[in-house]
Specification:
Elements lengths: L7 H67 L3 E6 L4 E4 L1 H7 L3 H4 L15 H13 L4 E8 L5 E13 L2 E11 L1 H24 L1
Antiparallel strand pairs: 1-2, 1-5, 3-4, 4-5
């Protein structure tokens, strides 16, 4: 067995070193904890600030969306909104009155599958799909459409894509029934043709 004896001076020095190290370690731990608390508090402040900014932005967007929805619901034109894949998300009351379809009946369906029938021009439908969802451009077309009950009407439609980050997020369709206007225009052309024929026949 080996026993080690130290002098009282060495023992006192060692004890002082231990006390010093313990003190330094305590200060370091205290500083570390204080730093963590500071960082956490700063993070919480940033998080709260960010949350407030996001909330304000969301409220602003909701207010704008509410105004747009109110305007769309009150317009006499029929309005349809789809997602980026052309699936119906919303229609206004004018659309319901004109077509007979409620939103519940057609929500989630492809827009190009609704209002088409035997005499609808399919190339025009394909053109709309290509322009809006592939080329990300707006387009205005005239289509022979069909109501829920199968009645034909001439539908003048304008589609505009809503683009975010180079992708089509939504598409908005604004349309109107121009059947009467088209009939009046055709009747006027026929009347003009008969008038010209009568004039030419008189000479």
């Amino acid at each position: 067995t080996i026993w080690l004896n130290t002098r009282p001076e060495f023992a006192a020095s060692a004890n002082a070193d231990r006390v010093y190290l313990a003190g330094v370690g305590g200060v370091a731990v205290s500083l570390l904890l204080a730093g963590l608390v500071f960082i956490q508090s700063r993070s919480e402040v940033r998080a709260v600030t960010l949350a407030e900014e996001m909330t304000q932005s969301l409220r602003k967007k909701e207010a704008e969306s509410h105004k747009l929805a109110l305007a769309a619901s009150l317009t006499s034109d029929d309005v349809m909104i789809t997602d980026g894949q052309g699936q119906i998300e919303w229609v206004n009351d004018a659309f319901v009155r004109m077509t007979g379809y409620t939103l519940t009946e057609i929500k989630g369906r492809q827009a190009h599958e609704v209002l088409i029938g035997q005499n609808t021009d399919r190339p025009t439908i394909n053109k709309i799909q290509q322009r809006v969802f592939t080329e990300m451009r707006g387009t205005k077309e005239l289509l022979l459409a069909y109501t829920k009950m199968g009645s034909e009407f001439w539908h003048e439609v304008e589609f505009q894509p809503v683009i975010e980050n180079q992708e089509v997020r939504h598409a908005i369709m604004i349309g109107r029934d121009v059947t009467s206007r088209r009939a009046e225009s055709q009747a006027l052309r026929m009347s003009e043709a008969r008038f010209r024929a009568a004039i030419e026949g008189g000479f």
